[in-house]
Amino acid sequence: MRILIIEDEPNLREQLASLLRSNGYAVDVAIDGKEGLYFGSEYPVDAAIVDLGLPEVDGIDLIKALRRAKRDFPILVLTARSQWQDKVGGLDAGADDYLTKPFQTEELIARLNALIRRSAGHATPVITCADLSLDTSRKIATLHDTEMELTAFEYKVLEYLMLNQERIVSKSELTEHLYEQDFDRDSNVLEVFVGRLRKKMTPLNFIRTVRGQGYRFSPDKSAG
Ligand code: CA
């Protein structure tokens, strides 16, 4: 999952970026509203964290512009101002949730996870597919009631495919949502991870290759 942080305060921006990275997210950072608007329009974004008080383009105007451009990823607003007018202003502009600074990092992560999950159409943190279940708040996958041993990156691949189950996900989409902008991408590496995931789920096959198009995650219908 790829998160865009738009925050002009350098310390907070770096703190947020490292917090999200340590929670398994790929992170892009924008230092003002103008850059944020550009990244938000051009990058593949799964959710954005937007400070309201931004130079160049104000947070509210930025959110309005993204929504006008039909960019519909979830947006969590950060505001240093605790007046209700600011919160309402952010939500009215098209944001999905807000946090007032200072905030607990656990709360930020929990709200962000919930926003991403809900935007993919899942109301609860546990996503299931046949005998496989994924607890997106604890970052744990369970197959036949046994916790799977997954590396952080294997988990990320599995989570993205499961959130988008029954839909064909191309390799480039998967790469774009799992890696940051300046990362050296190699789709062969991705194939290795998918291969390892498949192996860990054998004999069931949840990840089908759709030739020339990508992967589709769905229950193994051949299994009894
Ligand atoms: Ca600010």
SS class: alpha/beta
Q: The CATH topology of the largest domain, please?
A: Rossmann fold
C-alpha end-to-end distance:
33 Å
Strand order of the largest sheet: 2-1-3-4-5
The total beta strand count reads 12
Helix content: 40-55%
Q: Any idea what the radius of gyration is?
A: 18 Å
CATH architecture assignment name of the largest domain: 3-Layer(aba) Sandwich
Q: How many domain regions?
A: 2
- What characteristic shape results from the CA principal axes? elongated
CATH homolog superfamily of the largest domain: Response regulator
Mean pLDDT: 91
Summarize the main sheet: 5 strands, parallel
Share of residues in strands: 15-25%
- Tally of individual helices: 8
Protein described:
The chain has 224 residues and is of the alpha/beta class. The longest helix has 15 residues. It starts with a strand and ends in a 7-residue tail after the last strand. Calcium ion binds next to loops.
Summarize the structure.
With 224 residues, the chain is an alpha/beta fold. Helix content is 42%, strand content 21%.
Topology:
Blueprint: E1 2-6, H1 10-22, E2 26-30, H2 33-42, E3 47-51, H3 59-68, E4 75-79, H4 84-93, E5 97-100, H5 105-119, E6 126-129, E7 132-135, E8 140-143, E9 146-147, H6 152-163, E10 168-169, H7 171-178, H8 187-201, E11 207-210, E12 214-217
Parallel strand pairs: 1-2, 1-3, 3-4, 4-5
Antiparallel strand pairs: 6-7, 7-8, 8-9, 10-12, 11-12
Helix pairs in contact: 2-3, 6-8
The protein binds calcium ion.
